[in-house]
Amino acid sequence: MRLTLQMLISHGRMARRMGLGPESRINMLRNILTGLVRHERIETTLARADEVRFYAEKLVDYAKKGDKDEKAMKMASFWLTEKDLVPKLFKVLAPRFETQSHGYTRMARIPNRQNLDRAKMAVLEYKGNPFPPLYPAKKENELTLINQLLKGYREERAQQLDAKL
Amino acid sequence: MVLSFCSVYLLPPSICPLSSTGFASAAASLRPLPAEVRSQRNAVFSREQARQRALYPRIEKIEVSMHGPGLDGTLLIMNRGMSTPLSCARHLTEHHVKNSALALVDGEPWPLHQPLTSSCSLTLLTFKDSDPTLVNQAYWRSCAALLGQVIETAFKDEYTVELLSTPEVAVTSGAFCCDVVLDPQLDSWTPSEESLRSLTRGAQQLIHQDQAWEPLEVVPSVALEVFSHSRCKQEEVEQKASQNPKGTVMLYRCGDHVLLSGGPLVARTGLCSQYEVTALHNLGQGSWGVQRRAQGLSLPLQLQAHHTVWRKLRQRAEKLVRATNLCFLPQTVVQQS
């Protein structure tokens, strides 16, 4: 074949190459996805977590179709290597995300791996998991001067509205 | 149209009959000029301050243990009678110097510029602590004191201004207030928006000068000497002295203006950023004359508000604030509801 420069430069190519080839890549992602469904929060390299995210959300979309659907059951049994997680997927994860249409997972970067490779690491989790939050929600202090003034303002407005009614 | 700070648009003074208030008894020629009164008060204050400093001729060391986020266990060796909580903050970081508004010495609120007298534990309080109620109250008091200073210096020399005690108002009421009694010639004067704006500009000038509020704890006799020209202030000194368990009175000086306060004030005028004088209400006839309540709204440098929020709060601050502490109001005003 023609050994063009385009073969060596990969500008604009979005697809990641992982493992030994495409089949190896799918097997790796399958293992990671199984781990995610079992533990609901896992820690891997950034690239793998980013790849698995797409498949994790698609899996939940399939699970929402219900376990009576043949295609959904086939997908679930293909992607989850440990078969005791298939009921967990259909009975726990699918009802949890019933009201949401997308965005079932959350990814957060963590400090790089301490090995020689210093790989970028990330934490991937399904939302609604029982662990403490990754980003703790900061509560605004009610007692600062500006919040106290606003509290008085709101109370007065409420009083005025009550007086009107 | 730029108004100069010392001139306020006033109605031409009408010839008023002599009333039975304390001012007209001293005829205009006998009354000292405000500048003279100010310099006299300043002189007494400086003299007393120098005398108190001279009580520690040799440097004695005290140990100050710091408390606070990241500071627990820090021990500072400071000078007795000379080091203030501000100097302790200067040993730490610039963040502590710029952001601390008040100090807690052994659990007691302590102004930042007052010298420490013995080994103690120190906590520096800011506006963004988990419980800033003390700081908020001190800030409100300082803004009211600033308002009093602005009003006292705003009028022309021929009109007397008497500052009554600033009522302690809760922060949720929306505005700090300062009670003042103006010259009988101004009884029928109502401030226009221009005059309120010129008062605001005066306050902003003081804030820009970033003057420190220097505290001084004095015995009542010295305080009575400071306010020897004002009978109303002397009564206030006696009242405060009787309320204080130690029997002393706290005086504060800002620039060249000496004032009395019921509690600790924050460190500098530069801590306020947004400041506006919102209204001057007429409360009616009191024991000293026609009482007016000047109200204002202010926010510190660290907690600035967006202009939409500020406009709403300012509109609320124009309404009359009823003080919960009624013992300083004259009898005629108490029954208002």
TrEMBL record, chain A:
Family: Belongs to the bacterial ribosomal protein bL17 family.
GO MF, one annotated term: structural constituent of ribosome
Name of the molecule in the record: Large ribosomal subunit protein bL17m
Annotated localization: Mitochondrion
Superkingdom of this protein's organism: Eukaryota
Gene3D superfamilies: Ribosomal protein L17
Keywords linked to the UniProt accession: Mitochondrion, Ribonucleoprotein, Ribosomal protein, Transit peptide
Transmembrane parts of this sequence: none
Record's GO cellular component terms: mitochondrial large ribosomal subunit
GO terms under biological process: translation
Secretion signal, residue range per the UniProt entry: none
TrEMBL record, chain B:
Highest taxon above the source species: Eukaryota
Gene Ontology CC terms: mitochondrion; ribonucleoprotein complex; ribosome
SUPFAM superfamilies assigned to the protein according to its UniProt record, in alphabetical order: ThrRS/AlaRS common domain
Keywords: Mitochondrion, Ribonucleoprotein, Ribosomal protein
Chief subcellular location: mitochondrion
Subcellular location: Mitochondrion
UniProt keyword Ribosomal protein, yes or no: yes
UniProt key word Ligase: no
GO MF entries: nucleotide binding; RNA binding
Family as reported in the entry's similarity comment: Belongs to the mitochondrion-specific ribosomal protein mL39 family.
PANTHER family: LARGE RIBOSOMAL SUBUNIT PROTEIN ML39 (PTHR42753:SF9), MITOCHONDRIAL RIBOSOME PROTEIN L39/PROLYL-TRNA LIGASE FAMILY MEMBER (PTHR42753)
Protein name listed in UniProt: Large ribosomal subunit protein mL39
Source organism of this protein record: Amphiprion ocellaris
